[in-house]
Amino acid sequence: MRAAAVVLLLVAVVARPALAFEEFEGTRAEGMGGATRAWALADSAPLLNPSGMSLVKAYNVEASYAYGSRLSNQFFHASVVDSTSATGLAGALYYTYHLDDHVGEEHGHDHEAGVALSLPIGNYLALGATGKWFRLQGADAGPTGASSGGITFDLGATIRPMPILSLAIVGANMRDLGNGQAPQMLTYGAAFIPLPSLVLALDGVTTFTRDAVSGRRGTGIKAGAEWSMPQRAAFRLGGGSDPMLGVGYLSAGASLISEVAAVDVGVRGDLFPMATGSERNLSVGISLRVFVGQGQPGTAPDPEPSSP
User: Fold this and answer.
1) Is residue 93 situated within a structural domain?
2) Is 236 contained in some domain?
3) What is the pLDDT of residues 158-172, one digit of tens each?
4) Which residue, among 286, 279, 288, has the nearest Cα to 72 in the 3D structure?
C-alpha cells in the first residue's frame, strides 16, 4: 500500500502540466462557460480559435489575471490583437505566465508564448493558425524538477453562412509534445447572433490525450450567452462539462465599457463531480482591454459579415 501511494504521488506530480495552461481560456470566455470558439473576438482568438480575428476589424490590447483554487493556480496574461489591416490579414501576440503554489511542495512556474495569424477567404470563410511555445519549470516539469518545453500549433476555421450564424472548428495542439503539456483536442462551436447586442454560443471539446492521473478523455459541452450595451456594459452566463477534470460547472461575467477601454470580470465554479476522483475548482479572472482606434472587440458588433 505504501509503495502504491508513492507511485500515485509521483504520477500526480508528473501529470500536473497536462492542464497547466488549458485551464486558462481568457476572462470573456470564462464568463461564457468557455463557449466562444465560433465568436472568438479579441483575446479569445489566439487562445481558442485564431480564425476569429477576422470577424471584426479592431486593434485590442489586453492584460489579465486569473486565480484557480484547485492547484492555487495564478495566471498573468497579456495580448495584442490587430485585425485592421487593409489586406484583411490579422495577427496577434500573447504571453501567459502560470504559477501554482502548493504548501509544502516545490512551486511550478511555466511560460507560454504564441503568435497567431488569420486570413479571410471571401466573405464567408476565415482560416487561422497559432504557433505556441511552452516552457515548464519546477514541480510542473516533473519529479526531477528539470525544465521542459516544446512547440506546437492550433489550426482553426470560421464559417459565416449567414449574418446571424457563425460556425467554427479548431484542432488544438496539433503537434503532440508527448509529455502532457498540451493535450491534443478537436474543438468546434456555433454562435447565433439574433441581435447586434446578443450572442448565444454552443461549443464542444473532444480530447484525445488521456489525463495522466485519472486516465480520462472524452467530450465536453459548453454553452454561453453574452448581452452587451456598447460603451456601457456587457453581461455573460455559461456552463458545461469538462472532460479532463470530470466536472460540471457554471460561470458568469460582466464588463464595464467606455469608448477607449473595458474592465472585465469572470467567475467559474465547479458544481459537481462527473467521475471518481474529480476535484472541484473555483476560478476568478479580471482583465483590462484597451481599444486602439475603432471597435469594442469584447462585445457583439453589428452581425453583418465583413470578411467573413
Assistant:
1) yes
2) yes
3) 999 999 999 999 999
4) 279
Pairing relation of β-strands 233-242 and 219-229? antiparallel
124 lies in some domain: yes
Give the C-alpha separation, 288 to 263, whole Å.
5
**What is the average per-residue pLDDT within 40-67?**
95
**For the CA atoms of the chain, what is the radius of gyration?**
19
- Structural domain that includes position 191: 2-291
With a cut of 80, say whether residue 107 has pLDDT above it: no
6: confidence class by pLDDT, cuts 50, 70, 90: very low
- Half-sphere exposure at residue 75, Cβ-oriented, CA atoms within 13 angstroms: 28
Strands (E), the chain: 59-68, 73-82, 90-100, 108-121, 125-138, 148-162, 165-172, 185-195, 198-207, 219-229, 233-242, 247-257, 261-273, 282-291
Query: Does any domain span residue 306?
Result: no
Given a cut of 50, is residue 124 above it in pLDDT?
Answer: yes
Number of independent structural domains in the chain: 1
